[in-house]
Amino acid sequence: MKRYKQANEGIHAPEELKERAARPGARRPYSQWMGAVAAVLAVAVIGGIAMWPGQGGQPMQLAGYNDPAEGAEPSGSPAAGPAQFRATTGGEADGSYHVYALALADVPEMAPYPKDEDFFADVGDSEDAWQKASDAHSQAYDAWAESRKALRSGTDYTGLMDGFITSTSAQYLAGAGEENRVYSPVNVYMALAMLAETAGGDSREQILDLLEADSIEALRQRANALWRDNYRDDGVVTSLMANSLWLRDGMSYSQPTLDILAEDYYASSFSGAMGSEEYNQALRDWLNAQTNGLLQEQAQGLEMSPETVLALASTIYFRAAWDDEFRKERTETDTFHAPSGDVDADFMHKALESTFYWGDNFTAVQLYFQRGGSMWLILPDEGYSVDGLLESGEAMDFLLAPKYDRYDDKGNVAVEGWTGQKYLTIHLSMPKFDVSSDLDLIDGLKELGVTDVFDGSLSNFDPLGASTDDPLYVSQAKHAARVKVDEEGCEAVAYTVMMVNPTSAAPPNDEVDFTLDRPFLFAVTGDSGLPLFTGVVNQP
Q1: Cβ neighbours of residue 309 under 8 Å, at least 6 residues apart?
Q2: N or C: which end of the chain has fewer CB within 10 A?
Q3: Domain count of the chain?
Q4: Strand 37-47 relative to strand 308-319: parallel, antiparallel, unpaired?
Q5: Does residue 244 form part of some domain?
């Protein structure tokens, strides 16, 4: 906090804005472990022709993201993790941008998880010293647990988003052919939810229908819960969503809408010279900072034209090590049977005592991350395809289903768990992989019922309150993602870009081999249990 407050001392903005700008992501030092990072981001860019009512907001400067050298830590972060994109002192220093703050999100902070080595490493043999260390550890743990509990919304997500996750995952993961596919349902959900706040009429209703929300108020509450329930920043697990709006200066907007986005979506709103290289670079640097620079190549091609009215960005960053890491000395080169032919891949191996799952046409294993979240590995049966699992809904039905029986207050089974499961020894072999994909969302969203926002004669963006008489429509919607897995953990990023312009099986034995040597599905889940990432590995 101190370094961000010092950086804000030269900003000519109200103290309230400066204090809130000092906590853009509640970042704090991370551990030195470098192997597990995951990030998702979404960008929706809305364009139109501006009128000139005068500039509102408070002037400030933001420091940019510096591309770290290969193997180096990102600028602004003392260890692996998103680089800090922060407010700075005045002046024309390199790497800073003049922007106006129209609304700033008040991002919460979380107490760090107390690691044993920080309390007991140098205690010695004194019983009194051990007792003091134990008491300090307990106090730190209680503070961590309390801060984590305070963030939880208490939402039961059972059935709330199943239709959206199932339909969109099938829409965007199926038909990969020989390519890899990666998709983030939570990321796209949050981006569409924020887009719904700026839309009205049937344009909003179609988005609400796809997102399975009865009203914008219900969607708002759910999006807020989704943000809070997937927020972790405790030095062990990192799961961060960051939202922002980049508006064209010289125009007026609906301040109540911006305030709702700040309060319920934790989205900060800025204004600048739209179409300028400085403003374009500010947006790119914000995206790179939030995603640890893992999608710099894709972000580099992102440009807002002088006619653009709004760039709406939503990111998520997830990092956690495996609860039980793979031993690097056991990694061996073996054959992966890709659709295009056999290829060599580095396979990681370990035996684990865990639950083995199966369905009509697949088997599955769950790998846990430290202190929360997991990765699901779903392997189609021999002769059955990944597309078959997606199109039938079998894979997503399994992923979203409760795995164990749930009981009511009287001890009766209220919800039955997954029947195809057995606890046994699993000899796991899985390839290290680094997979990425670029998806165009427009046709898929149209097929899923969101159509009006793509038609200037039907679209409605009145809630945005942009001072333009020209109708706006979404002209581009793209989603890029990347997921990396190695012996230590998982690293993943994704973004969605929306440009809006004006019109002018049988049970197993007690032991089983689970070898992912042919195309398979995966999913990364966070604390909420919802899939933050889903993907298809055709080429590890």
Answers
A1: 46, 47, 48, 50, 247, 248, 251, 274, 464, 466, 468, 472, 500
A2: N
A3: 1
A4: antiparallel
A5: yes
Which position has the token pair 């149209």? Answer: 446
Beta strands in 107-198 (DSSP E): 181-183
φ, ψ of residue 429 to 5 degrees: the values are -130, 120
Q: Does residue 14 sit in helix, strand or coil? A: coil
Distance from first CA to last CA of the chain, Å, rounded?
A: 41
- Domain holding 90, by residue range, is 2-113+232-319
| Residue pair 11/87 in contact by the 8 Å Cβ criterion | yes
Q: Distances in Å between the alpha carbon of 431 and those of 28, 179, 487?
A: 32, 16, 10
Which residues on neighbouring strands pair with residue 334, listed in sequence order? 345
- 278 within domain boundaries: yes
- pTM score of the predicted model: 0.83
Check if the beta carbon of residue 50 is closer than 8 Å to that of residue 308.
Answer: no
CATH number for 267: 3.30.497
E-strand stretches of 184-329:
232-233, 238-248, 267-272, 308-319
Residue 253 near residue 465 (C-beta atoms within 8 A): yes
Strands 267-272 and 232-233: unpaired
Tokens matching residue 393: 């809904």
User: What are residue 424's DSSP bridge partners?
Assistant: 354
- Does 443 map to a domain? no
| CA dist., res. 68 & res. 77, Å (int) | 11
Please name which of 490, 494, 484, 238 lies closest in space to residue 372, comparing C-alpha atoms: 238
Nearest to 518 by CA among 337, 332, 388, 335: 337
- pLDDT by position in tens, the chain (length 540): 322 222 233 323 444 444 444 333 333 333 323 233 233 333 444 443 222 233 445 555 566 666 654 444 433 332 356 665 654 333 343 456 778 889 989 888 899 999 888 898 888 888 888 999 999 999 999 999 999 999 999 999 988 999 999 999 999 999 999 999 999 999 999 999 999 999 999 999 999 999 999 999 999 999 999 999 999 889 888 888 888 888 888 888 999 999 999 999 999 888 888 888 988 888 888 888 888 888 888 888 888 888 888 888 888 788 889 999 999 999 999 999 999 999 999 999 999 999 999 999 999 999 999 888 899 999 999 999 999 999 999 999 999 999 988 888 888 888 888 999 999 999 999 999 998 888 889 999 999 999 999 998 999 999 998 887 888 888 778 888 888 899 999 888 878 777 777 776 444 567 889 899 999 899 999 888 889 989 999 988
Q: How far is CA 282 from CA 259, 285, 369, 456, 466, in A?
A: 22, 5, 34, 29, 22
Tell me if 312 is assigned to some domain: yes
Buried b (16+ CB within 10 A) or exposed e, 112-131: bbbeeeebeeeeeeeeeeee
CB neighbourhood size of 340 (10 A): 10
Polymer length of the chain:
540
Query: How far, in Å, CA of 116 to CA of 120, rounded?
Result: 6
